[in-house]
């Protein structure tokens, strides 16, 4: 379970919840939506009108504002005193007033990214710790029908992919190619149209003595997903295949093909 159960906090790396010593706090769906919107605002105030529009859209009930105020009262009782405040600009949750698993995740990911060039094993450990904060495969699956929360969930999913990538790259740079293979294979199954994950798998296979599998099996599976099914060009895949067939086995050089590609590959 993510988050510190000894201190009140909010978890959104999974279904939205408030946790306190002794367990979670039961919240109605609309209340969880209000909470998630205030957390996603990262300390900026959100007006009652914005909350109403985002949650109900065109089907706004006549008493929606009163419902928001009712949910705010519930959240104030669930969160540490003084965490949820109101000003003329709207409602605001103080980021320092309670722990939020997504904030802890981003902090650990930043640490992993910083450590990667100098301490690959430490980087992989930090990325593992970040991924351990997730509860399930999706962020906020119970509230993503709200447009801003759908966008926030997609952003967190992208960060999760970066953490998964660091686990594999850190392991490869540390010389643990064999140990990284299960993670590398899992990522190509979960994200078959992300070039970087196929490149990582090919490197892991080559460095663990599976060159034939990398160049004769994985390469062609990757081409089918990345090129034949999408019609897009995959220069990184062709470059890595050429390097492997030319006898390149230095991890830094092979991973350079992976890490020097653009990050925004669908």
N-to-C order of helices and strands: EEEHHHEEEHHHHHHHH
Tally of separate helices: 11
Compute the gyration radius: what is it?
A: 22 Å
Structural class: alpha+beta
- Largest beta sheet: strand ordering: 3-2-1-6
Mean pLDDT: 90
Search tags:
4-stranded mixed β-sheet; disordered C terminus; two-stranded antiparallel sheet; 266 residues; 11 helices; disordered N terminus; Arc Repressor Mutant, subunit A; 6 strands; alpha+beta
Describe what is shown at a glance:
The chain has 266 residues and is an alpha+beta fold. Among the domains are: 9-98, Arc Repressor Mutant, subunit A; 175-266, no CATH class. The chain has helices at residues 29-40, 48-56, 64-78, 101-115, 120-131, 147-173, 177-190, 195-207, 211-228, 235-245, 251-259; strands spanning 9-11, 17-20, 23-25, 84-87, 90-93, 99-100.
